[in-house]
Design a protein that fits this description.
- This protein has 267 residues and is an alpha+beta fold.
- The protein has 5 helices and 18 strands.
- The chain has a 5-stranded antiparallel beta sheet with strand order 5-8-1-10-9. It has a 4-stranded antiparallel beta sheet with strand order 14-17-11-18, with helices on one face. It has a 3-stranded antiparallel beta sheet with strand order 2-7-6, with no helix packed on it.
- A hairpin with an 8-residue loop joins β12 and β13.
- It starts with a strand and ends with a strand.
Amino acid sequence: MRLRLTLRRISKVCNLPINYQSYIAANIYRLIEESSPAYAAFLHNEGYKEKNKRFKHFTFGQLQIPKKLREIERDRILVKADKISLEVSFLATKASENFITGVFQKQTITITDKYAHNEFAIDKIEMIKVAFEEETVILRTLSPLVIGSQGKQETNSTYLSPLDNNYETIFLSNLQSKYQSYVTQISPSTPASNGVTPKFEFLKFNHDKPKLVTIKPKQNIKFKGYLFDFRLTAPIEMIKVGFFGGFGRGCSYGMGMTKLIEKVTSN
């Protein structure tokens, strides 16, 4: 499921860190924990497992702030808008949709660091309906999509451009692992492939340079991802796993969120 949250600025002065993603992630965990400590503990400590990998199956986009009502100064964003928006996305069963919507009702989002305390009230929650009917779709990234070969430590990871020869292989392997982790726990009877061979095709960049997002400054943990359009062929249920839970790495920190821009009808 996908939700659009309208955030009303409470703070008179709104001065956000440009790398705000870890603060948004912390707020999501906090709100889930207030509604269901058991589910929050599951996401934080275990997640959905596939062999030695763990996935959270949620992501979020970049804060939507009108260009005329924001200023970027070095590593800060000065927000003059009274209201901004944020899209959050969860790979959720139909039965859990009301719970997830309730997590955000009448709540606040706070982004506080040593420079500023910023507080927003969640004024409105809208469900964004997306239907998948074809096994080939064209998607556009709304936040950096991160693909790479992981070292023993996050700081040793190598991040790839979608033009890299190994990108498709790693992208699809990651997606298939996420799919398997979800269906094994939620719906083990779901068929794995339906005879469709997954394929990834890069189409075009929407930003000429990679985006570098700092998640944990003290540990020097950063994600490098790209904004681009791509064509994906896969079983519909596998497409949903990536679309709602995020593609690639770092999704619970707001990486790998996409929007559907075209459905490709099979002949």
